[in-house]
Amino acid sequence: MLAGDEPITPETVATGASGARGLLAAEHLLFGSGADALAEGEARRCDYAAAVAALAAGEAQRLVDEFADGAAETLAGRGGVAMTTEGAIDELVNTQVNALDDLVDGRLAPDAAGEPSGSPAGHESALAEATLATVAQLYAPERLGGPLPDGTRQAVRSTFDDALAALDAGGSELPSSGAAARGEIHAAADEARVVVRTDVVSALDVVLSFSDNDGDSG
Amino acid sequence: MTGRDATSPAARMRLAAGRVVPGHSIALARITVGVVVVVSAARLLAHGWVAQLWSRPELLLGWPGLDVSVLPHAGLVAVVVGVGATGVALALGVAPRAAAAAFLVGFGYLELLDRTTYLNHYWAMTLLALLFVALPGDGTWALWARRPAGVPAWALWLLRGQVAVVYVGAAVAKLDPDWLLRGEPLGMWLAARTDLPVLGPLLGLPGVGPAASWTGLLFDLTIVAWLWWRPTRVPAVVAVVAFHAVTWVLFPAIGVFPLLMVGLATLWLPPDWPVTAGRRVARALGRRPTAGPAAPGLTPVLRVRRRTVVLAAMWMGVQVVVPLRHLAIPGDVRWTEEGGRFAWRVMAEEKVGWTTFRVTDADTGAVDRVALTDLLTPTQAHVAATRPDLLHQVAGVIADRRAAGGVRPEVRADARVSWNGRGNAALIDPDVDLAAQPWRAGRHQPWILEPPS
């Protein structure tokens, strides 16, 4: 689509292939090959990125509206996937744990970060920051942090703050950060992951990605 | 037996032990165990747990010195089906002693495959099956059994003693400051159930955790006495039903355990209680009850051999000593888990852990990280992450697999555990090469760190 000369609007993007829209397209436009042109004001790339963003925003808003109209309850009732508060918390924490595992064992792992990742400049760093910040925000007192004991909530806040500070100190381009800085970032992110995987899981009585066995040993 | 002998307490007890009693309550216990076996086997098959527990895991953590080969999936399914069939035979009373023995073989094989599948109620079922093999046969409510109806009283006493050990053992395991003073871990568990209908809103109230903890402790500690004492026997059975029904509603993951314990609690009722209860119901419905003695034509008193007395005493002695063996091992069993199995530590603590191993190449010094979930399924990892013996076993496997030229790498564990709501703490000394540590059977492992205060 970048190579063509047809006008790029949300409507034309909406009719394109699935790979040419959505978050994958946004990632490519913002960080992929030739992304530097965006900063230089390359008009077609800007139009494309704006169209992809507008389309995604529209879809998200439609989802929000339908949920607000009671579609969520209808869906849960019809689909047989009615979720309890407990089940919803399990889902949320499992999603966070998976994201943190992916971050700590994959993207931030010392051996992986030691190699030229091939990722566009700033991509890994931005992704790590987004993951850590998003998870940390979920444990605000008005959200999942509400049912947590004070000590656990404080542990979440301090470890995620430390991880974000380490990330910030490592600079915006993670692959080119020094080995020591990368090690510190990894250790701090791992500490945050451990708090979620142990203290939070225990306090919220979360079942981590496995079916309940007929167990009796707590 | 002389007249003087018969007046001594020991002789009177021996005489009472040999008295033949109706076999209905023991038959009901046998049926209960049979039904629980069938339900357990059905759940294993219906939920796909055969694959999840035994076929799918890349690594099974067997018991040291008791290695067994894992069968292909179809073979494992056949074993589970066979175990279910032994449950049917037990429930129907088809060669019940042989059925109990066959259950022990099949179920024992499954339990030996992987230590992470250990459950207290599986152990209880194993012990009960052993008793059903060893106790005198009984033809009550049996489709095909070689013995006539009626059992010596000592057989009933032994079964009661076994069930009593489970309750009292579960109470003793809860005699700790967390349970008594902090009301944990029950407080945490109940607070996570506040979305339950009716009961839920009450569970989040202040003080519910300690109140529920003390109630549960007093129940476990005293229920056997209430069952034993005739005036409180029937209310105690009602309390058993209510208690286990509530625990099943609150903690559905405990599965078939409530059913097992409710059925076994009826062992304290008069041995022929199902018959008398049936007659009362028939009378209440205006029907003529069927008559007939419970065990016609039986010798009223059987001689109890000295060998029987000694074996029964030894059995009960073992049942008391084994759960308490942790007292002979330094350290807090709640944290170290040393002596924690076969000890009726039922829902006594909440622990969640996460472990990453650091593997150091002996030649290059390069350090690689291996998460517990790289080797184990989430189900296995959930159990292993809080148990030092299993982490030691996994460290050994990692070292064996990565050994190059006969030289094993060093394997250190960053094992963090959150225990009864405390902030996570290191379980194992992170500087120790865990793979190089010998396992000191029956003794404290020096590389296990002190528990958090």
Quickly list its features.
heterodimer; A: 218 residues; mainly alpha; 9 helices; flat; disordered C terminus; B: 453 residues; alpha+beta; four-stranded antiparallel sheet; two-stranded antiparallel sheet; 7% strand; globular
Protein topology:
The complex is a heterodimer of chains A (218) and B (453).
Chain A: H1 10-14, H2 22-31, H3 36-39, H4 43-79, H5 85-107, H6 110-114, H7 123-138, H8 150-169, H9 179-203
Helix pairs in contact in A: 2-4, 5-7, 5-9, 7-8, 8-9
Chain B: H1 3-7, H2 9-18, E1 20-21, H3 24-46, H4 49-55, H5 73-92, H6 96-113, H7 120-134, E2 151-152, H8 153-172, H9 177-182, H10 186-191, H11 200-203, H12 208-228, H13 233-250, H14 257-265, H15 273-284, H16 306-324, H17 333-336, E3 351-360, E4 367-371, H18 372-375, H19 378-384, H20 388-402, E5 410-419, E6 425-426
Antiparallel strand pairs in B: 1-2, 3-4, 3-5, 5-6
Helix pairs in contact in B: 3-5, 3-14, 4-5, 5-6, 6-7, 7-8, 8-12, 8-16, 12-13, 13-14
Structure description:
The complex is a heterodimer of chains A (218) and B (453). Chain A has 218 residues and is mainly α. Chain A is 67% helix and 0% strand. Chain A has helices spanning 10-14, 22-31, 36-39, 43-79, 85-107, 110-114, 123-138, 150-169, 179-203. The model of chain A is unreliable at 210-218 (pLDDT under 50). Chain B is an alpha+beta fold and 453 residues long. Chain B contains 20 helices and 6 strands.
What is the compact description of this entry?
The complex is a heterodimer of chains A (218) and B (453). Chain A is mostly helical and 218 residues long. Chain A contains nine helices and no strands.
